[in-house]
Specification:
Blueprint: H1 39-46, H2 53-68, H3 78-98, H4 104-131, E1 148-156, E2 160-166, E3 169-175, E4 178-188, E5 193-201, E6 210-216, E7 219-226, E8 229-236
Antiparallel strand pairs: 1-4, 1-6, 2-3, 2-5, 5-8, 6-7
Helix pairs in contact: 2-3, 2-4, 3-4
Length: 237
């Protein structure tokens, strides 16, 4: 705080003086010195924001999810990648807003790309599973003349339950213990579908070697093995 004090000296009134001459005061102003800056404040001002690691990783996950969405053999990986990208992107945005890190653009980009992938794949899956029936649907059993075939293969050393098909259309079967694999078939013309094959033992007391695989037009797109249950999932188009 600066304080200015102005002192005005008036001449004494002597004999023969009838008035006191007016002397305008003269005020000299001085600028206040700047407040001292602490060492910690100087370091904070000079320090650059560190990299926003969640934002960068979230953006990479979103881009990877966008790429694998269009690859039928690994399309199902897009869901966990996009989910991780969305969570990391939101964390990165929060950190950037707080000012603890930089790269706000990466954070916003990762969040937007991941959310777009989730909305797009979710919308296509819902349409093709629940609405896109008929010529555009997954046909169980096989319809003659369809362009693509889907084969579900299950193996089990003891009796096992089999569930196969798309999310909105699941079929059930029982495969007896045998060295010969069990086969189920489907077909489709166009569209994108999340197909699954689950094989689980009928009795937990029996030691059972279980295997499952899914083939699209003869190419294997999913495979798994287990002792009590085996689950195969593939996003086909």
């Amino acid at each position: 705080m600066c304080i200015w004090v102005t002192v005005v000296a008036l001449p004494e009134k002597g004999p023969g003086m009838t008035t006191v001459p007016h002397v305008p005061p003269t005020v000299t102003q001085h600028e206040c010195p700047a407040a001292p800056i602490s060492v910690s404040e100087r370091r904070r001002a000079a320090a650059k924001p560190r990299w926003n690691l969640p934002a960068v990783v979230g953006l990479l996950c979103g881009i990877a999810a966008l790429v694998v969405t269009f690859v039928s053999a690994i399309g199902s990986v897009a869901w966990p990648l996009a989910g991780a990208g969305l969570v990391l992107g939101i964390v990165g945005v929060v950190q950037a807003i707080k000012g603890t890190t930089g790269n706000r653009g990466f954070a916003i980009g990762g969040t937007a790309v991941s959310a777009a992938v989730l909305l797009t794949t979710g919308g296509l899956l819902a349409y093709n599973t629940f609405i896109g029936i008929g010529e555009a649907g997954l046909h169980l059993p096989v319809v003659a003349g369809d362009k693509h075939t889907v084969e579900f293969v299950a193996t089990a050393t003891s009796d096992a339950y089999v569930h196969f098909g798309a999310l909105g259309d699941q079929r059930a079967a029982i495969t007896p213990g045998s060295t010969d694999p069990w086969h189920g078939q489907a077909s489709y013309n166009t569209g994108s579908y999340l197909v699954t094959l689950t094989v689980d033992t009928r009795s937990s007391n029996l030691h059972n070697q279980i295997g499952c695989s899914i083939l699209v037009d003869g190419d294997k797109v999913a495979e798994n093995t287990g002792t009590t249950i085996a689950l195969c999932t593939a996003n086909i188009r």
